[in-house]
């Protein structure tokens, strides 16, 4: 399956727009990462723990999007966008959503 942030697939023509699909994941941030991030906010620099968690959450959301595309028989998902939202009573959870339009492509000639 082809994934793209653009609204078309270069060199291919879209035959059918199936529907909008989404993949979501919610990741928890543990207290050790919070401690490291607090230290980084004082001293400056990047928070590797948070970055790693964000990457894992994004990949998980993409995997969910892939699965949903397979379920609806898509050849591609176009116009993919990501949304990151804090969740939980202490904002200690991160929800990542990947959305796009599932499409079928015209066969290659």
TrEMBL record:
It comes from the Bacteria. InterPro entries: UPF0145_dom_sf (IPR035439), UPF0145_YbjQ-like (IPR002765). Transmembrane segments: none annotated. It holds the Pfam family YbjQ_1. Belongs to the UPF0145 family. This is UPF0145 protein AYJ05_09450. It comes from Corynebacterium stationis.
């Amino acid at each position: 399956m082809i994934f793209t942030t653009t609204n078309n697939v270069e060199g291919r023509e879209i035959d059918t727009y199936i529907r909008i699909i989404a993949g979501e994941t919610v990741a928890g941030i543990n207290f050790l990462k919070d401690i490291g991030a607090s230290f980084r906010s004082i001293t400056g620099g990047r928070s590797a723990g948070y970055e790693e968690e964000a990457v894992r959450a994004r990949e998980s959301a993409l995997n969910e999007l892939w699965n949903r595309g397979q379920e609806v028989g898509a050849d591609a998902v176009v116009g993919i966008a990501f949304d990151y939202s804090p969740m939980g009573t202490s904002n200690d959870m991160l929800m990542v959503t990947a959305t796009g339009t599932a499409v079928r492509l015209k066969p290659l000639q």
